[in-house]
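Example protein
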Amino acid sequence: MDALRSDRADQIGDPVILAASYVGGDRFIARCYQSAMAIARALGNPSNFTTITANPSWSEILAELEHNQTPDSRLDLIAKVFKLKLDQMLHDLKERYVCGVSTGSVYTIEYQKRGLPHAHILIFLHRDVVPRCAEQVDELVRAQVPTNDPELAAIVKSLLVHGPCGPEFPNAP
């Protein structure tokens, strides 16, 4: 008999405590947080924060769809391609040092309202390459559409610039 449906909640049974190895459980999340804080204590403040978001229009996703499928019907495929791209990005950041020599990193994967994964990544750069002034930050960060490369400008406009969003714009990306 279902104790909740019969208003006999006093007979629900014994509570179950999930192990820290249960991904997504309270103990797992607490352990991840403690690990991230231990890394920050050892390495200092993170130097860079970056985000990568899945794009259902990635060619690797579209190429694997059946004739009648849309990316929305293959969230498993989106998640797999996203993880592959995230792993490559982490490799570029940690092994190829595309932002400078790193001493560590921490990241988390979350899912947006429409089910698309995105990751927040903290990079700890070696103290010799941490930007110390605005000019050094400007060497790493660009917040403008490129004017000397039309192909790159088209990519930036299609992937990084979007219009207004909110309830009055239900079709916004």
